[in-house]
Amino acid sequence: MTTTDAFSGLECVDCEYENKSESESESESGVDGPDETDARRCPDCDGILEATYDLEAIDLDRAELESRPFDSLWRYEELLPFARDSAVTTDEGATALVECSKLADELGVDRVLIKDEGRNPTGSIADRGQSVAVTDALRRDTTDVALASTGNDGQSAAAYAGRADLESHVFVPSRSGFTNKAMVNVHGGDMSVVGGRMGAAEDAYEEALAEHDDWHPLGTFDTPYRLEGAKTLFYEIVEGLEWEVPDAIVVPTGTGLGLAGLYKGAREFRELGLIDEVPALYAAQAAGCAPIVEAFDDGRAEHEPVEHPDTICGDIEIPDPAGGKLALEAIRESDGGAIATEDRAILEAAVAVANGEGLEVAPSPGAAPSAVWDLAERGEFDGSETIVLVNTTAGNKEADVLRSHLMGQGI
Ligand SMILES: [Zn+2]
């Protein structure tokens, strides 16, 4: 068995469809757990499939988790679909949660902490989802994996595929950063640089999948399992805060996977009795591509695609996010919010964090501190808050962009 005991299968988030594990015997595809044939999207309505667990069967308490080494996201094995000893892992997750007291003073709140996902093996939060999704690919009869990505997920997928001896096919838009493109090649991935923006890369990926029906898709929400990796971010944040639920978690938002993951993680921990409440979840987007903020401001449950995206924050320039609906649900149900700020303010915030706190934040995750500054200026805080900002990507991936901002200021 490669699946874990409590993992009970897949469920559509939009309809009643369920694909539950065979309990004793293997399914027709020869894989234990949900059948591969319909593991991409819901066969009834094309909705997103989510992994479900029999949480009542899980015996986890705070003391048990605290007794485990803080060594990788696989320390939450009971809450993941696959067993740790089957995992394709390079010890992703288990990142630092760094106290930023200067930021807290400037914002007029009690505490600000940065969850530094730049410390993951390939320098971004993408490693959480790719570790779990490539573990799934490996347990099947897969030889090739494929995805479209603004860059970090492509780099990460190429790394994990290489480790698992799978071929990876990565479709990135031409504007994707140099480090991402270079490292896809270095990890042995087959990279297609597609002219134009993310939409064009997604089209090329879909065409390639149609031509190669043996390729295993790793695109956002094309596999249920990236969400399973993403949710561990929440587990680590509350454990890192010694089980205090922060007042807000602010996440740079492109596809919506990060917010959806935090919300799923929070609901599971609450259901297990490990916490009592869900924190307010905030999306931070760039004003030049903010479909989730626009939908939130208009009170809509679904976003409308952005026709002409234009931001220097390439990581989060996702005009038509696959997880838009789930992200909006997470924001709404957690009583959170969504804030868009201009590129100049975002770069300013990334540089300020590097300068004042010593942490290296890439341009896109600069949207998180930028959003919080915006909230502070609007008088949203009373001074008692604990706020967690997620730094999704290491600053050195796009050091040139950060430095050019300094040059623009004449410093
Ligand atoms: Zn469905």
Automatic annotation (TrEMBL):
Keywords: Lyase, Pyridoxal phosphate. It comes from the Archaea. Transmembrane segments: none annotated. Its EC number is 4.2.3.1. InterPro entries: Ser/Thr_Dehydratase, TrpB-like_PALP, TrpB-like_PALP_sf. One of its GO terms (molecular function) is L-serine ammonia-lyase activity. CDD domains: Thr-synth_1 (cd01563). Residues 17-42 are annotated as: Disordered. It is an enzyme of class 4 (lyase). Residues 88-392 form the Tryptophan synthase beta chain-like PALP domain. GO terms for biological process: isoleucine biosynthetic process; L-serine catabolic process; L-threonine catabolic process. Residues 24-36 have a biased composition (Acidic residues). PANTHER family: L-THREONINE DEHYDRATASE CATABOLIC TDCB, THREONINE DEHYDRATASE, MITOCHONDRIAL-RELATED. This is Threonine synthase. It comes from Natronoglomus mannanivorans.
